[in-house]
Amino acid sequence: xxxxxxxxxxxxxxxxxxxxxxxxxxxxxxxxxxxxxxxxxxxxxxxxxxxxxxxxxxxxxxxxxxxxxxxxxxxxxxxxxxxxxxxxxxxxxxxxxxxxxxxxxxxxxxxxxxxx
Length: 116
Prior knowledge:
The protein is mostly helical. It has 4 helices and 2 strands, in the order H-H-H-E-E-H.
């Protein structure tokens, strides 16, 4: 579901707004998000998730053999699972942050319209 559709469902009065105003509001909500804190938080989650999976596997990350260093299949799976989980979590969190900011901006817009 797009942000426009979500906004129209949450705030029916926005259906009468022009698409330019709605688009500008969505762009403003996307531009003011604290992504750096989110990225740091997700890095910590990824390290925790990887460590947890790695502890369950009990295999070394790199195996030394005659052919050189080899990644263990379990470690590769743990890295990929951790990366997938964090990307999914990041998208969900960004979406919720943008939706929260959109609601705040709509309220500010309504207050400004009443003041006029």
